[in-house]
Amino acid sequence: MAGCCGPLAAFLFEYDTPRIVLIRSRKVGLMSRAVQLLILAYVIGWVFVWKKGYQEMDSVVSSVTTKAKGVAMTNSSYIGSRVWDAADYVIPVQAESSLFIMTNMIITKNQTQSVCPEIPDETTMCESDASCTPGSVSTHSNGVATGKCVWYNRTVKTCEVAAWCPVEHDLKVPKPAVLRASENFTILVKNNILYPKFNFSKRNILVTINSTYLKSCIHDAETDPLCPIFRVGKIVASAGHSFEDMAVTGGIMGIQISWDCNLDRAAAHCLPKYSFRRLDTRDVEHTVAPGYNFRFAKYFNDLAGSEYRTLIKAYGIRFDVIVFGKAGKFGIIPTMINIGSGLALLGVGTVLCDIIVLHCMKKRYYYREKKYKYVEDYEKGLHSETDQ
C-alpha cells in the first residue's frame, strides 16, 4: 500500500516548472538545429508548398452530355446491305454521363406471337411429350412450354413454347464484329464544372476553341490534349486494349476528366486532363459472360394489323464519363491553422532533443543534474527551523 501512495503523493503534491539550461556543446547544438530544420522543411516544403496548406479546398460539381458521330456500311448474309448512322447504333439516344455505341449484334427478324420449338440445349431437347411440362418456364426460356415435343429440325426434337417466334438463336456471336467500322466513330464530350465555394465555373470547350477547330480536331494526348472530340478506337487503345477484340462481345470504358485547379492563379490555367481505362473486368482465363450486351426490339404492324417485331441483341461499348477534381484558393483560416501546427511541431522538436540529451548521451547524468533542481516546500522548511 505504501508503495502505491508514494507515486500518488508525488503526483498530487509536486509541481514542475520549465527551466532553461544552455548547453554549450557542438554535438547537442547541431542535433537541435538539424531537428528544427527537418521540421521547418516539412512545414514549408510539404505542408505549404506541395500540399498547399494555405488554401481552402472545394470539390467539383459537374454535368456531362455526349454526342456520337459516324457512318458505317455493312453487308452480311442475314442483315443484308445496310447503312448505319448515329440514330441506329447509339442506344438510348441520351443518357446521363454515359454513351452506348453498338459494335456487334444478333438480329432476329419478323417475330410474331405464336408457338414454335425452343433452341436445342440440355434442358429443352426431348423424346416425347412426356419430357415437356405444360406451363413451365425456366430462367433461360424463350417462352411458356405448351407440353408438346416437336421437331426443331430433321434431327433434333425440342419442347414447344408459346413465345415470340421464331425464337432467338444467340449461341454464336458474329466474329469479327458486324460494326467493326465503329472504330472510327467519334464522341464529343461536353462537360461543365462548378466549384460552388469559390463561385467558379468553366467548361471543357474552352473560350479559345472556335467552331472551325471543333469540326476538325481529334483528341491526342501529345499533339492536341484539349480537344473534346475522341475517336472510339483510340480511346480503347489508350487504355491498353484491342478494339477488334472488345467490339465482338462489348465492354465498358471510362473517360476520366480531371479538374485540379489552383484558383490563386489565372482562370486560364484551370484546364481539364483526360485519361482512359477499361472498367469491366477482363480476365483472359475466365471467359464466362464476357463483355457487355442487352436486348431491345423494334415493333411494327403490317397492313392487316398483325404485330411483328425485330429483336436485336446488341453488343457494344458503354462509355462512362467520370469527372473528378478539387480546387484550392488562399484562405486565412487554413493558413493560421497550419502555422500553429508548425510552431507546435517545433515544441515537439525541443522535447525530442531533451529526451536524447537526458536519456541517450554519455553525459546524461551530468545534463540531468543541471536540468532539474529539487526544492522543498518553503513553509515546511520554516516549521522545521521554528521547532529547533
Taking the sheet with the most strands, its summary is: 8 strands, mixed
Give the full name of the CATH homologous superfamily of the domain at 59-107 and 177-285 and 322-330.
atp-gated p2x4 ion channel domain
Tell me, what's the shape?
elongated
Q: Which fold name corresponds to the CATH topology of the domain at 59-107 and 177-285 and 322-330?
A: atp-gated p2x4 ion channel fold
Distance N to C terminus: 32 Å
Structural class assignment:
alpha+beta
Q: Name the helix and strand elements from N-terminus to C-terminus, one letter apiece.
A: HHEEEEHEEEEEHEHHEEEEHHH
The portion of residues assigned to helices is 25-40%
What CATH architecture of the domain at 59-107 and 177-285 and 322-330 do you see? Sandwich
Name the poorly predicted regions.
Answer: none
What portion of the residues fall into strands of 2 or more residues? 25-35%
Number of strands: 14
